[in-house]
Every structure is written in C-alpha cells, then in structure tokens.
UniProtKB/TrEMBL annotation:
Matches recorded under InterPro entries: HotDog_dom_sf (IPR029069), PAAI_dom (IPR003736), Thioestr_dom (IPR006683)
Molecular function as annotated in GO: acyl-CoA hydrolase activity
Organism: Thioclava atlantica
Thioesterase domain residues: 49-125
Protein name (record): Thioesterase
NCBIfam families associated with the record: unchar_dom_1
Coiled coil keyword on record: no
Protein's UniProt keywords contain Lyase: no
Pfam families attached to this UniProt entry: 4HBT
Keyword terms: Hydrolase
C-alpha cells in the first residue's frame, strides 16, 4: 500500500496526539517497505545495570508499528494494539540508541500485523523482536 503520510507529518502527529512521548522517538527513514525508528536513549530509559529496560523496547516497537500503519492509512489516532509478543534476545549496548526496523506483514481493512526488529545503534545483532496486531476503527 502506498504511503499517505511522510516522515515530518508522522512525527508532528505523534507529538501532537501523544505529548507524553514527545522527543523520545525519531524516524530515521520511511519507504513503501520499511520504517526505521529510533529511541533516543537517555538515563530515564535505563534499568539497573545500565541497559535499556524491556518496557522501553516494547514502546519502541509499539510506536514504530503504529507509525508504519498510519503512514499508509492516514491520521487514525484510535488504531489500537490488540495483541503483542516480544522476544528479548540479548542485552542492548549501553550508551547507544535503539533502532527498530519495522515491516507491515498485513494491512487489512480491520486488522494490521507488523513486526519490529530492534538493534543497538551500530550493532547488526538484534536485541529484540516484536510482533503486534492492531485494530483499525471503521471510517
């Protein structure tokens, strides 16, 4: 499905609709096949031991898949997560942003399914993988 929102419009919509996460995420790239989004890691994202916490990795996947869906369907704030699964595979690097590569596996009229592979910036080995399903409200 073709893009109906570009990077700047998506970022502005996220900031406006979800001010509680304003400045936390940045879109690195967006095309018809993939969205790459970054969690700008700060001390508030860390758990004891200096690694990014699981809830923050989950948030990165959730926000990334949500934005990939909106990039294709437009401003639908009430598209909501209905199912989520995340596998934590290794400890993220300390002092590095987290990068999520997002692919939509299915974009239907009512449901969308996406996948996020999360990496520490500068490392090719994934630290987590998430799969999420979203419900798209009727128009």
């Amino acid at each position: 499905m073709a893009l109906v929102m570009e990077t700047g419009e998506l970022a502005a919509f996220l900031d406006e609709t979800f001010p509680q996460v304003k400045g936390e995420f940045a879109i690195d790239s967006l095309n018809d096949d993939e969205l790459i989004v970054r969690l700008k890691v700060a001390e508030r994202h860390l758990r004891p031991g200096g690694t990014v916490s699981g809830p923050n990795m989950f948030a990165l996947a959730d926000v990334g898949i949500y934005m990939a869906i909106l990039a294709r369907i437009g401003k639908v704030a009430l598209a909501v997560t209905t199912n989520a699964s995340i596998d934590f595979m290794r400890k993220p690097a300390s002092g590095a942003d987290l990068i999520a590569k997002i692919r939509l596996l299915k974009l239907g009229r009512v449901l969308a399914v996406g996948e996020a592979l999360i990496f520490s910036d500068g490392d090719e080995r994934p630290v987590a993988r998430a799969s999420m399903t979203y419900s798209i409200p009727p128009k």
